[in-house]
Amino acid sequence: MIDSLPKRRHRSSLILIVLMIGTVLVACKKSDTAAPPPPSETPSEWTSEAASAPPSDSAGAPAPQPGSSAPKPSAPPPSAAPPPPPPGTNCVKNPRACGFPDASTTGWQPTGVKLTTAGVKLTSDAEFQINTAGAVIDGKDIQGCVSIKANNVTIKRSRVRCDSYFPIRVYDGFKGAVIEDTEIDGMNSGTTNAAIGFDGYVARRVNIHGVGDGPHMGTNVVIQDSYVHDLANCDICHNDTIQSSGALNVVLNHNTFINDAEGKNAVVRIATEQGDSHNFLVENNLLAGGNYAVQVRSQGYGFPQGVKVINNRIVPTWRFGPFDVTDGTIVATGNFRDDNLAPLSAD
């Protein structure tokens, strides 16, 4: 019994040492798995490019191999200030610089189309007749006058050269005609009565010149983003860039209308010789020349009703004044001179 006592004491000491080592190991393990400290507010590797990088198209893409560089995300567009507004005065010298249509934004040429005469068959009177509903005339060089005798006809990216009364005429009873990205050349003929007539058409980005009068309008007409200029000179011409003698539901929006012909009358003429007139909007146009820029008259069927002339830039090249409004009143607001931005009143 006495001989075994030291052995027991030695064995107890070993057990105690093992327990102490185990306690230390457990404590170290807990320290290793504790949450890491929060990152700094501005990590050294943070960049604006990394912040705005789009997500990868394929999740889980393999990491780049050693020695290769990771693709760099594209930088976000700079938050630059918007470009300055276009020149604010004398826009008639360069309409496009002020955001108005001119030859560089209208007609067939800006589209890059190559014109062809294929399929263009004229009558003995040099007339190109369209009699099929929904017909689309595209990229044609038409050396004659166009007669539309069907609904929903489209003429686009084309040129019409006609020295007779109506380069493009929509006949009575038909509607839905669209003329866009097209040039109308009246060949500087004094016999050209109206570049386009009369009801149910839309003209967009049309370049009209060399005609006695620009478009004439009756019912449901829209002319937009178009350029009417260089009207024909002749002894009998009494030129109007836009003319109506009885109109219903007309919109003239964002066009350049110039009347510097020798026989100039008005840039925009709204009257009632052939019928009453209702709902006529003239808005955001560049108007130049004429005896008057805008003429509104009672002539036979009372004074035109619902005429609004709003936010137009008027070049002071008129012969008598910017407005001629007789026997009635119109809504005319926001109109101003092209040269000094002074407001213009219809009173």
CATH domain class of the domain at 103-337: Mainly Beta
Whole-number mean pLDDT: 82
Oligomer classification: single chain
Output the number of helix runs: 2
CATH topology of the domain at 103-337: Pectate Lyase C-like
Give unreliable regions as ranges: 1-10, 14-18, 24-86
Give me the side-by-side strand order of the main sheet.
2-5-8-11-13-16-19-22-25
| Secondary-structure element string | HHEEEEEEEEEEEEEEEEEEEEEEEEEE
> Helix amount, in percent?
under 10%
The proportion of strand residues reads 25-35%
Structural class based on helices, strands and sheet pairing: mainly beta
Name the CATH superfamily assignment of the domain at 103-337: Single-stranded right-handed beta-helix, Pectin lyase-like
**Count of distinct strands:** 26
Shape summary: globular
Biased composition (Pro residues): 73-88
Biased composition (Low complexity): 42-72
Region (Disordered): 31-96
InterPro entries: Pectin_lyase_fold/virulence
